[in-house]
Amino acid sequence: MPLRLRGKKKAKSKETAGLVKGEPTGAGGGSSASRAPARRLVFHAQLAHGSATGRVEGFSSIQELYAQIADAFEISPSEILYCTLNTPRIDMERLLGGQLGLEDFIFAHVKGIKKEVNVYKSEDSLGVTITDNGVGYAFIKRIKDGGVIDSIKTICVGDHIESINGENIVGWRHCDVAKKLKELKKEELFTMNLIEPKKAFEIEPRSKAGKSSGEKIGSGRATLRLRSKGPATVEEMPSETKAKAIEKIDDVLELYMGIRDIDLATTMFEAGKDKVNPDEFAVALDETLGDFAFPDEFVFDVWGVIGDAKRRGL
């Protein structure tokens, strides 16, 4: 029985509250009506290729965090490609995504060498996974062993894709970049302009997936949840069952959509955790993520992951 993705929508209920509004330092006293004092969180950051330690605080979104980091190190926000947590290495398992542990240390990877690469698309799949930094920069997250991209050693995990065949893709979502690459004709040559992150020195050969030490990121019991749009919120650390379910949804996203996006996977989990059947879940997805045309098989698989997590207890 097909899911009714365009069924009657229910009113949304969001239990979110702004964490901290970015306030100019030393601003003189304009008072907000009945504004309660907010806890001002302070994080420490460095440039991944080496720098002194800076402080960032008062941000409520990914864009504001990047602006804070740029201000701390006197660079332009547009120089920041992405951030990793608790390691300066290009470790794709430690990317700053939708959540930031309250004791996490932030490393900002900035633009380094530019390179132009010609690629012959000998297979339908290039063997590459694309993600983005939440503010318009798409980059390579994984390279599949034996794939087309794997054969080109100048292309590395962490490289920002600036243009494809001369078309500037800055500002595109990672799913749109992946679609663009997928639609390129087989057995034809195409060109990518890439920017690799700046490095202090080479300490190891290129990584295909970014190896993680397996340690948990941060030691705090709470996390700061960041969004590309809207305020940040402080949330409890997810249970192990929930965290594993979100990882599985991320795997399903890659299988069906060719993308990995832990923030999107988290949004889908939250949309389905209180639903009682796949039809309700489909309606919730349509309300929350209407821009995506998810196939019914995908919805059923994600619902199965959520159902398993609910049976184990969240």
From TrEMBL:
Biased composition (Basic residues): 1-12
Residues annotated as domain PDZ: 116-183
SMART domains cross-referenced by the UniProt entry: PDZ (SM00228)
Family matches, as Gene3D superfamilies: 2.30.42.10
One Pfam family in the UniProt entry: GIPC1_GH1
Molecular function via GO: identical protein binding
InterPro entries, A to Z: GH2_GIPC, GIPC1-3_GH1, GIPC1/2/3, PDZ, PDZ_sf
Region described as Disordered: 1-34
Highest taxon of the lineage: Eukaryota
CDD domains in the cross-refs: GH2_GIPC, PDZ_GIPC2
Family: Belongs to the GIPC family.
Protein's name according to its UniProt entry: GIPC PDZ domain containing family member 2
Organism: Macaca fascicularis
The gene coding this protein: GIPC2
